[in-house]
Amino acid sequence: MATDIQRNEITKVEGVNIKANHRARRDVSVDASDVSVDASDVEKYASLVMVVDNSAFVHLGSDKTKVIHFVLAIVNHMDFLFRQANIHVILTHLEIWDVSDKFTVTAITSDNLNHFTQYNKDIMINQNGWKHDNAHFLTHVDQQGGLVGLGAVGSICGQNGLSQAMSQIWSDNPLITAGTVAHEFGHNVGLYHFTSECICDDPPCLMSSYANWSPVRGLTDCTKKVIEDRCSLGKCSCLTDQPAASYMGATCGNGIVEKGEDCDCGQPEYCTNKCCDASTCKFQTHAQCAEGECCTYDCQLKAKDVLCRDAQGECDLPETCDGKQATCPLDVYLQDYQDCNSKTSYCYKGKCTKTLNEQCKTLWGNEADHSRTCIRNYKGDKFGHCGTDENGNFIPCETKNEFCGKVQCHGDIASHFIVFGRSRSTAVYGSQCRSGLTYVGENINPTMAFDGTKCDAGKVCQNQQCIATDIAKSTSKCDDRCHFGRCTNVGACYCPPKFKCPDCSRMDPNNIKGQVCSEQPSQTHRHHDGKLNWEEYLDLLTSNLFLTRWKARVTFKNRVSTGDTLDKYVPTKKIDSVDHAIDNLFKDLKDMNLAPTTTTTTTTTTTTTTTTTTTTPTTTTTTPTTTPTTTTTVAPLCLGAVGMINIGCRSKSGGTMIANFRNAMDWNNPSDSIEKMICDCAKTAKDDGYVGFGLVYWGECWGYSTKDEAVNQSGSTNCSNDQYNSCAEEDRICIGKADASYAFLL
């Protein structure tokens, strides 16, 4: 998937010496849609590694200082060009092969780029530990076919983290060579050569298919628009973090804010930032900040909780300003291998991965689908395999891994690849099968199943192997410990609004818009005492599930406690009916002004006196009076559900209505359908009576009712007969453990 730039005959165009090239465009797009997405209008930073081979070193006089100045001039001009598209190009490492080359450099451009790709992966990334967004190889060896550059289109921010290109030094003017290097970097970002839709009307232009003999002065509007569009789709997601330092060290004017600097907008002649003094790298007098997603156009910090990076897709998370820093917090997303796309895919690196069907459509067109009957990955040839070994031999796929190898497609599809490369077609069981072959670069192969692709239920492709997701997630530090939140890629929980870090199990009214926790959750699922804090849990229910955002800590009357949890509460006296139990709870809530009420005024009331003895309750009715009084009728208590909490209404007559609202509740704006379900549940409870309230554990006894009611309502298959009887003797109900916690109102 490389695109080249050639040197041919010199042609005069509008007074500028440029090189004409009439060859066909050769490029292939790398899909980078499976990574986290960023906003298109924020500043981005491309960290660059430059490698200068021995031929270039010798050509520049075998003088390291001269080489350094030559390279810095190239990078400074690249930065000047791409800043027009909000991308800062920063040199973080420079490697000069002053003694000998680290691999054999030939006149075959594609071979050189392939070797450099492997060198970038094995040495610069894995061995040296360099973290960079792009790598560029400079040589002075003449390349075949008049090529002076080659780069993989759209490789930057790709799934495998590899993006590289190469250029030949064909002019001693570093700004001329900078045009070639910037051109190939443009391909890496995702730019193509000019077309009828995007033309160069003021040469020299960066993305012309020929090399320019004059320095490129800027980017065309359509080039900037292409970059903006790609970034808005997440193709620039790795460019959001500013490098800690540049190769040049701490220098005012290098574009990096370093120790002792407030800001750095580059050289004064290029600086357009009104908040920064380019000559001193200090804020202007009125400024609190100079740039960043959390810095206003008036150079002031944005307020806390202002959205600075929206969630892009179901696998990404939003980030908000903290009110103290000008930059948006680190881009955080959901932990890999969580379900997405209606459980047909998994989250991977912040994006919902494409299904095998979708990958076929990318390769062959919209009519293509993945085919089980076309699978030939067991053959171990170039059109059917699970990767290569250390000697470059194709590895046949084991049966369990066949969906993680070469993508095999069928259907009424194109006769040739949509992308560049060779393809093969074979007929299998009457179906037109397709398998493709293309050169993109080391470990950049769109014809192989992507890492993160779902290969079976509960299984995912990883390095061409179909493995269980629980194995793939084995390094997680927060999996299954985030309660009402979600586990993230940084090992901490994301707590939605109203929930408290670090494990999202408690309430936090100050968490307005959700937040990624700064610390990891504890190893236990429960609080420090080993028990769920019932008051906090009820606080959660009353604040979010009553739809009117009540918030209180409810203390049940007529009960004594031997501990902090509901299962320790016992009745002080026998509750002789479900209605009695409901009345008690409504009275408790009313006393604390929690229960909704409706008030009516009457002109005539009847005073009723109730006298209770140790035997039979008696009621005496006195003479009616005419004094106006207000009668309060307690309305039914509406319980709802949020996150992983469910509500269950068990009626007095034995009927059951349970609604699971997981992932259905809008944290801030409950939908009409959910509200209707909740109110229907409450109406049923009012008419027929609730019988229990509590969190569900395996075979635990909950709630209070008559012994008969306890037996009648003990319908869970997780409770044994002995547990039924035991619960009944205590006037409780045995409720089995479910997939989530049920709440029952007493």
TrEMBL record:
<dbReference type="InterPro" id="IPR036436">
    <property type="entry name" value="Disintegrin_dom_sf"/>
</dbReference>
<feature type="binding site">
    <location>
        <position position="187"/>
    </location>
    <ligand>
        <name>Zn(2+)</name>
    </ligand>
</feature>
<keyword id="KW-0862">Zinc</keyword>
<feature type="region of interest" description="Disordered">
    <location>
        <begin position="598"/>
        <end position="628"/>
    </location>
</feature>
<dbReference type="GO" id="GO:0004222">
    <property type="term" value="F:metalloendopeptidase activity"/>
</dbReference>
<feature type="binding site">
    <location>
        <position position="193"/>
    </location>
    <ligand>
        <name>Zn(2+)</name>
    </ligand>
</feature>
<feature type="domain" description="Peptidase M12B">
    <location>
        <begin position="44"/>
        <end position="243"/>
    </location>
</feature>
<feature type="disulfide bond">
    <location>
        <begin position="200"/>
        <end position="205"/>
    </location>
</feature>
<protein>
    <submittedName>
        <fullName>Uncharacterized protein</fullName>
    </submittedName>
</protein>
<dbReference type="Pfam" id="PF08516">
    <property type="entry name" value="ADAM_CR"/>
</dbReference>
<dbReference type="Pfam" id="PF01421">
    <property type="entry name" value="Reprolysin"/>
</dbReference>
<feature type="disulfide bond">
    <location>
        <begin position="198"/>
        <end position="222"/>
    </location>
</feature>
<feature type="active site">
    <location>
        <position position="184"/>
    </location>
</feature>
<keyword id="KW-0479">Metal-binding</keyword>
<keyword id="KW-1015">Disulfide bond</keyword>
<dbReference type="GO" id="GO:0046872">
    <property type="term" value="F:metal ion binding"/>
</dbReference>
<dbReference type="GO" id="GO:0006508">
    <property type="term" value="P:proteolysis"/>
</dbReference>
<dbReference type="InterPro" id="IPR001762">
    <property type="entry name" value="Disintegrin_dom"/>
</dbReference>
<feature type="disulfide bond">
    <location>
        <begin position="308"/>
        <end position="328"/>
    </location>
</feature>
<dbReference type="InterPro" id="IPR006586">
    <property type="entry name" value="ADAM_Cys-rich"/>
</dbReference>
<feature type="binding site">
    <location>
        <position position="183"/>
    </location>
    <ligand>
        <name>Zn(2+)</name>
    </ligand>
</feature>
<dbReference type="InterPro" id="IPR024079">
    <property type="entry name" value="MetalloPept_cat_dom_sf"/>
</dbReference>
<dbReference type="InterPro" id="IPR001590">
    <property type="entry name" value="Peptidase_M12B"/>
</dbReference>
<feature type="domain" description="Disintegrin">
    <location>
        <begin position="249"/>
        <end position="336"/>
    </location>
</feature>
<dbReference type="Pfam" id="PF00200">
    <property type="entry name" value="Disintegrin"/>
</dbReference>
<dbReference type="InterPro" id="IPR034027">
    <property type="entry name" value="Reprolysin_adamalysin"/>
</dbReference>
<dbReference type="InterPro" id="IPR018358">
    <property type="entry name" value="Disintegrin_CS"/>
</dbReference>
